[in-house]
Amino acid sequence: MKFDHQRAIYLQIVDWVKIKIVTSQWSIGKQVPSVRVLSVELGVTPNTVQRAYRVLEEGDLLMSKRGKGNFVTDDEHLLEKLRKQLANHHVSLFFKEMQELDYSDDQIYEEVTLFINEKERGEENE
């Protein structure tokens, strides 16, 4: 994982873990990597990972079980809410970038529609 040094690393890890969870790379109710394992994998200090895990616990996305480790929540409603929040965030960023390219909302809609249609045609030809 590459880090943006203009933003706190632990917050970037929080976002990375959220993606892992909503894409089911880290499954509902399953144990997540230990603080030490993830810190080595990401090349950060254990304290940084612990801080990220604490934020995720406070948001009820991770559950800590004493002596067993950390686990992904089994609250499917919460995970669906997170998925929608992340989607909304990405759409918002996309719109902002398109508007910076001087596209109107109607032009953005046309481009997205064209993209989807081309994608569907490509899938039909496979």
Automatic annotation (TrEMBL):
UniProt-listed InterPro entries: Tscrpt_reg_HTH_GntR, WH-like_DNA-bd_sf, WH_DNA-bd_sf
Gene3D superfamilies membership: Winged helix-like DNA-binding domain superfamily/Winged helix DNA-binding domain
Gene Ontology molecular functions: DNA binding; DNA-binding transcription factor activity
Keyword list, A-Z: DNA-binding, Transcription, Transcription regulation
Keyword Cell membrane: no
Sequence ranges assigned to domain HTH gntR-type in this UniProt record: 7-75
Protein name: DNA-binding transcriptional regulator YhcF, GntR family
